[in-house]
Amino acid sequence: MGVLMQAFYWDCPREEGQEYAWWNHVASKLGELQQAGFSALWLPPASKAANIGGISMGYDVYDYYDLGEYVQKSVRPGETRTWFGSKDDLKVLIQAVHDHKMKAYADLILNHNNGADQQEYNPIARQDRWTLFNPQSNRFTRDWTCFNPSPYREFDDVAFGDMPDLCHINPRVSTGILNHAKWMIEEIGFDGFRYDFVKGFGAWIVRAIHDRNYTRDNKKLEIFGVGECWAGDEFIDSWLDSVNNWAKHRIGAFDFPLRYRLKDLCDNGSFSLRTLAAGGVLMKDRPFEAVTFVDNHDFRGDGNDEIVSDKLLAYAYILTHEGYPCVFWKDYYRYGLAEPGKPSGIERLVQVHESHAGGGTNILYVDDTFYAMERTGAGTQPGLLFALNNSGGTIRHSVKTSFNGKPLKPLAWRAKDRIYDPQTITTNGGGWCEIEAPQRGYVVYGV
Description:
Elements: E1 4-6, H1 12-15, H2 22-28, H3 30-36, E2 40-42, E3 48-49, E4 61-63, H4 87-99, E5 103-108, E6 118-122, E7 127-132, H5 171-188, E8 192-195, H6 203-210, E9 214-216, E10 219-221, E11 224-227, H7 233-244, E12 252-254, H8 256-267, H9 282-285, E13 290-293, H10 311-318, E14 324-328, H11 329-334, H12 346-356, E15 361-366, E16 370-375, E17 384-389, E18 395-400, E19 407-414, E20 425-426, E21 432-437, E22 441-446
Parallel strand pairs: 1-2, 1-14, 2-5, 5-8, 8-11, 11-12, 12-13, 13-14
Antiparallel strand pairs: 3-4, 6-7, 9-10, 15-16, 16-17, 17-22, 18-21, 19-20, 19-22
Helix pairs in contact: 2-4, 6-7, 8-10
């Protein structure tokens, strides 16, 4: 299925000195990302934000059709661009992504808006509210009837902060959303969507987007979709069922339950690896709908902390196991975990994922400190053998694999705080071999 790169993090234009030029900055990295093996980029919200109190990351959308061409909501005189760049810059980036044989996914904000032009009296709420939107694009204008509470009754009481909460069953809103999605695919060039805060609106609107027909350059398209359903396993299951049970084109969800286990693995030295073999995560229960990840832009404190220790253990896990793995730009570039050309970084793990990580998963051994599994292989991917060690010293174990009578060489590896040089292992005719992993480290073996 490939590997996804989340091509931004919170305040990334400022952090990397790329204000109003992020689209161009990402474009400059496409060659190395393609060479590493990435297949798609998830880009930040492209529509013009309200920018209340200063320039923003775009999650306070004001004009869906302003991708950086109107002066509205500017925080400096005469500026038309979003914090990431101009509409033309974005289109050039997307074309370059396609030229590099990758896909580009947009971050869609379909629950809340901000920065209305005027207050209106809402007779249901019996108060004045900021709900009149007359953007310069003159497309997808909104008034008080477009937001809850509205004349259209909707069982939706999950608002995002104090931002006006869109009423999706108002035909004006649902039509506006569907037309905007079609425009983003067919005219701007995106290949799919990440849906922000899906707990805040009915799953039917996502299903409607994906059941629609799309064409570009006279060719029919199938779009990708993944929902940010930040919840436990049962809630995510229910949401996925509500989207996919009657859908022609299925979408996925981020595997938040797995992410919290991975944080415990990395930041808690007493974490039991037996937990990695348990269900209750999308990767195990419905792997074809699981988008696995280690960190994202929302894990930045206030109780939602990023992983701070031994983060490559988590990346080794998601890039060898089933699911659609997503790598975080901040980890790859800002924290230097790509380690290009080395066997111990994310770049090598992405390459191994693309070359070897096919087929089903067999857990071969697990206890509190040692975990071993194999991928059985599919198509051109021959499979792999993965060993993870959570202890303070090197561990070896005999395991029975499906690789009968084959030498398995180390493809990627890492050890905590020391040099490690793993050796090729050879299975006997029954598939048995002795595998080794270093302290707080891992080895990926393959043919």
